[in-house]
Amino acid sequence: MDEFQTIIGLEVHVELFTDSKMFCSCSTKFGQQPNTQVCPVCLGLPGALPVVNEKAIELCIKTGIATNCKINHEFVFVRKSYFYPDLPKNFQISQYKDPVAVSGYIVVKGNKIGITRIHLEEDTGKLIHDERAGNWSYIDFNRSGIPLMEIVTQPEISSPDQAVDFLMELKRIISYIGVSDCIMEEGSLRCDANISVKRKADSKLGVKVEVKNLNSFRSVKRALAYEQQRMTDLLKSGQPIIQETRLWNESLQITEGMRTKEEAHDYRYFPEPDILPFKIDPEIIKKVSEEIGELPVVREQRFIQQYQLTEYDASLLTSEKSIADYFENVLVYYNKPKQVSNWIQTELLALLKENHCTATNCNLSPNFLAKIVKMVDQGIISNTVGKELLKESFLTGIDPENAVKERNLVQISGAEELEEIVEQTIKENQPAVNDYQSGKSQALGFLIGQIMRKTKNKANPQIVREILQKKLSEGGKE
Ligand SMILES: [Zn+2]
Question: Same domain for 419 and 402?
Fold first, then answer.
């Protein structure tokens, strides 16, 4: 495909972390009974007047600053008119000429990807097509009026992989600064893409196709890869590419034509008469910038330098703010970055995922994890006991240090005590001993396993191995 060039631009919609909706005081809580969080404003009843949620504006400004945008000090809301069942007013309050933020960028794996604009609007209701309803559809207006931020990139993304990298970095930034949880599965981050493919030698831009219904990072990647291939094949066979909107069909893993794009859709934008133009006090911009704190990409670099972590470790630990905070909190109690990083990656992350919780709200406090790692490092408990304690403390909140004292979990490292157990194990497992002595080295692992079981994982496996090898080679000489 070297002969061809792909150009992708993204439109990302992010639901903002506010308690109430964009223009009314209805709750934004996800997962409630349909149509229980509605009022005349978000149902678009005649005469209802919108009141702007200033928190939403602050969050949008915050995103603008964190993505290196220029913040407009004055902006207006407009009415974007169109007719669709999920939009009861027949217009959406949005922004057009003067959005909250413009001309920014984020750095994705060393490449700058430009951001054209970030604007605020209200979400629409949600249409639910359920088989049980036959030819009918349901509408849930709980989503109607939820503050929505639209982020539009420059057409500068050159591959489906880079599009996903961009989204992951954007998600990392936005969740870091507390603007949204960005859960694609719950619809708090949604993405449409524009893609075109042209021959490199061709100076004319390629025909753009819009791809919708991308509900996960994986579908973004697959849908764009599918389109890239489809358009390349068309070019190769000399067929025209039609400017259109296509839907990603997740079950068939293909895109399907939805509608050909009218050249310019007439949304009849005009200023929203019920909301005055907004003037942003520079004090607010200052306050919001101070709230941003260290951005993930900066923190990642600091982790590499300050703690001598690998790029991989640093990027994993800074993937979420709560994990990065947790890591640094553990270091307050036990300052061994590499070891702590390993325990978080191999044990804690899996438990968090399994139990659907975050590092902030889990039972295993940073102090407790520090205690476990330290006890293992000092040889007080074995690695296996450490892992078991970590899991138990995670589930129940017990203090691992107390558990070690109360249940006598201290590692057995005394050669005398272990020698006795090793000898007994050798006696009880003659077939394995014979195997080992006839050259089957894996029998050693079996014997160590037997000893670990006998001692309830308290034996120091390193010392057990040494004693065992010695005894077995002595036995071999007899
Ligand atoms: Zn409402």
Answer: no
Q: Tell how far the Cα of 88 is from the centroid of ligand 1, in angstroms.
A: 12
- pLDDT band per the 50, 70, 90 thresholds, residue 264: low
Ligand 1 center–CA 76 separation, angstroms? 21
Q: Say how many Å lie between the CA of residue 408 and the centre of ligand 1.
A: 59
Are residues 430 and 399 part of one domain?
Answer: no
Q: How much distance in Å is there from the Cα of 85 to the middle of ligand 1?
A: 17
User: What is the separation of C-alpha 17 from the centre of its chain, rounded to a whole number of angstroms?
Assistant: 16
Distance 22 CA to ligand 1 centre (A): 9
**Are 224 and 306 part of one and the same domain?**
no
Residue 93 sits in the same domain as residue 13: yes
CA distances from 56 to 64, 417, 426 (A): 12, 66, 70
Q: Choose between 476 and 155: higher pLDDT.
A: 155
Question: What is the spatial order of strands in the sheet that 91-94 belongs to?
Answer: 91-94, 78-81, 270-271
Cα 89 to middle of ligand 1, angstroms: 13
- Find the domain containing 379 and state its range: 294-406
- Ligand 1 mean position to 450 CA, how many Å? 65
Contacts of 202 (CB under 8 A, 6+ apart): none
* Domain total in the chain: 3
- Give the model confidence (pLDDT) of 41-79 as tens digits: 999 999 899 999 999 999 999 999 999 999 999 989 999
How far apart, in Å, are the Cα atoms of 395 and each of 317, 362, 366, 392, 399?
22, 8, 14, 5, 11
In tens, the pLDDT along 340-373 reads 999 999 999 999 988 888 888 888 999 999 999 9
Distance 379 CA to ligand 1 centre (A): 60
Angle CA(52)–CA(179)–CA(288) in degrees, nearest 5? 75
Q: β-strands 278-279, 74-75: how paired?
A: antiparallel
> What is the distance in A from the centroid of ligand 1 to the CA of 41?
5
pLDDT tens per residue, range 228-237: 999 999 999 9
3-state helix, strand, coil in the chain (%, to 5): 40, 20, 40
> From ligand 1's centre to the CA of 216, what distance in Å?
29
81 and 215: one domain? yes
Q: CA 182, CA 281: separation in Å to the nearest integer?
A: 28
Mean pLDDT of 20-40: 93
Report the alpha-carbon distance of residue 77 to residue 377 in Å, rounded.
59
**CA 39 to centroid of ligand 1, rounded, Å:** 4
Give residue 265 CA to ligand 1 midpoint distance, Å. Answer: 28
- Residue 49 Cα, ligand 1 centroid: separation in angstroms? 10
